[in-house]
Amino acid sequence: MKEKVLMKGNEAFGETAIRCGCRFYFGYPITPQNELTEYMSANLMKAGGEFIQAESELAAVNMAYGAACSGGRVLISSSSPGIALMQEGLSFMCSVQVPVVIINVSRGGPGVGSIQPGQADYYQATRGGGNGDYHLIVYAPSSIQEASDIIGKAYDVAEKYRNPVMVLADGMLGQMMEPVLLPEMKEALAEEDIPKVKPWALAGHKDKREHNVIKSLYLQTEQLEETINGYWGKYETAKKELPEYEAYNLDGAEVVMVSYGSTSRIVLEAIDLLAEGGIKAGLIRPITLWPFPYEAFDKIGESTKAVVSVELSKGQMLDDILIGTRGRWPATLVSRTGGVLIYPQEVAERVKEFLEGVR
Amino acid sequence: MSTQKIIIAGFGGQGVLLIGQLLAYAAMMEGKEVTWMPSYGPEMRGGTANCTVIVSDKKIASPLVTQATAVAAMNGPSLEKFKDLIVPGGDLFVNASIITGGVEKEGAKIHNVDCMGLAAELQNTKVANMVMLGAIYQVTGVVSESSIKAAMEKTFTGGKAKLVDLNMKALYAWKG
């Protein structure tokens, strides 16, 4: 049987990517994800890959763009303000449909913000911080094990949909250690096999076929519209195929909290505290943030009187909850922001207060 | 054992994160659920450092600790910062080499550990943190001796492998 290892989140993210066949990493240091860049610098080349510490996030994301165009499995990572600097590249990669996995170990914002864990990149991740009609596919793991499992899946989803996939972690998941069962080591795609698996890749036509073109500039507007409409169908498919969530304790719940990532673990403890006070509470934990699992709210029963978004931001996810609840229950926000963590006691007290108001 | 929540705090360079890592590693080897959560920030040697370790038979929800079953304070500021998080009947380990003059904390069992003095008796003050680990291990029984040793063997590799014996000795330097 395979053994669990005790690893920091950031290191486990990197090791998982290597084991999933990632052979290209480009990054620029930023707290709280530095151990990930450091891990790749020490280990990716041993696995036959290429590590480059770029001169900036803008350079890193464009190196990733290039490597992805050539058919490589690529990882980029950063934290909130660094991810903001990468938005141009993400928009470009979506426009030309190249797969890449990007990890955001997010921290408090806006601006340079703080270096403590935050979730205020929700809009940036799910609504797109870059220009144009595109989506990132976004996963939000709540444990190091789940993050490792998701990174493996993220490469398959990115390549199937030919679209960047973001794994939205936060400083807590990046910095903490938990036992994790890593995936088996997978060989990287051999260079000569790239054209078979990724026929769109710029892997050399060798005078045997027409040359591939990857471009993002269209001076004929109709061509651009046609291109966008051409790939838009995959987003509609993604909305049907990809939404994932975990529902906990919904049966008979008087209040349902919605929370993702590491914050959802704090909510689980708040649920126990509320139970001690005689209030039955449940949790909907979105695992995909885009596409958002709106159908989760159809699982809420008649006992529920209120829905509460618990997030480390000023109600960014609440917008999706309002779309999902469609006015069926009163919904509110319980949050801290700026890198301040929320504790189970505060969640329980504020949820109780809101519930008393709507009873 | 149901769940033990342990805070280990001191200043950077005292090895508080390593105490927590060895506890976490040992617990994992026993098949227990475990989380290790460090403080992080713009710190340097001499700045504050702490980590929290949760060991449980059940899946661990929040890795944050608001009520600790044990606190190990390696210096005065850490003692002040964390002593009030101890649950009634919990353990407070005090690094008596630095925190002198006695400590009072109602409802907590206080264990004075002269980390530096006991380490000096082993001819190596660098194992002061392992003396504290030993005190935590002896009092709380959160993990077994054999799993701590196994954790050390996994952690101290290469040129550091020869340090396992010394560190194991340090584990028993404190006699309660």
Search tags:
heterodimer; A: 359 residues; alpha/beta; Rossmann fold; 2 domains; 7-stranded mixed beta sheet; 5-stranded mixed beta sheet; 13 helices; 14 strands; 41% helix; 18% strand; B: 176 residues; Pyruvate-ferredoxin Oxidoreductase, domain 3; 6-stranded mixed beta sheet; 6 helices; 26% strand; globular
Overall 3D form of chain B: globular
Strand line-up across the major sheet of chain A: 3-2-4-5-7-6-12
Q: Portion of residues in helices of chain B?
A: 25-40%
Distance N to C terminus of chain B: 21 Å
What is the CA-atom radius of gyration of chain A, in angstroms? 21 Å
Specify the CATH architecture of the largest domain in chain A.
3-Layer(aba) Sandwich
CATH architectural label of chain B: 3-Layer(aba) Sandwich
Beta-strand content of chain A: 15-25%
Q: Classify the helix fraction of chain A into a percent range.
A: 40-55%
Could you tell me the number of beta strands of chain A?
A: 14
Explain what you see:
The termini of chain A are far apart. Chain A is globular, with a radius of gyration of 21 Å. Chain A has helices at residues 9-19, 34-43, 57-69, 80-85, 87-96, 122-128, 144-161, 171-175, 194-197, 221-241, 261-276, 316-325, 344-358; strands at residues 5-8, 24-27, 50-53, 74-78, 101-106, 137-139, 165-170, 177-180, 245-248, 255-258, 281-286, 288-290, 306-311, 331-335. Chain A has 359 residues and is α/β, with parallel strands linked by helices. Chain A has two domains: 5-192, Thiamin diphosphate (ThDP)-binding fold, Pyr/PP domains (Rossmann fold), CATH 3.40.50.970; 246-358, Rossmann fold (3-Layer(aba) Sandwich), CATH 3.40.50.920. Chain B is an alpha/beta fold and 176 residues long. Chain B has a single domain (3-171), classed as Pyruvate-ferredoxin Oxidoreductase, domain 3. Chain B has a six-stranded mixed sheet, with helices on both faces. Chains A and B meet through α8, β8 and α11 of A and α1 and β2 of B.
